[in-house]
Specification:
elongated, alpha+beta, three-stranded mixed sheet, 4 helices, 64% helix, GMP Synthetase, Chain A, domain 3
Amino acid sequence: MNPQQAQNALQRRQDQIESRSRRVEVSRLFASTQRDLQRTEKRVAGSAALWERACPPELLDRTSVVGLQRGVLTIGVRDHSTRYILDRMLRSGLETDLIRRSAVAINKVKLVARPDAFVDPKVAAMRERRSGSPSKGPRP
């Protein structure tokens, strides 16, 4: 083996080692991200089930659990009237009840308006075809 072939063989081997170490780093990153996502899923799923039990049935289809972060359970609501009703209920004891019954630490329940989250995909597609542009939600 001449010096050039030896140098090429050494370079290929170093590239293989480097590639393998990058794969290990990436696989560790994926494993860590997967664990974090599973943990988050468990927390949010438990909070969503708790919300489904606590929310009045007539308002349940107009709400959704957006997330749980740093002890704040965020609930998305379709419209302002739903937000007003839920705000009154939370202030009159529903929030305290949710905090007490929750398996994860909830310090506060926050309501946010999310009208676009409740647009039926079929309706949005129909509006898009009619107007030629994506739907921006209901008109004011």
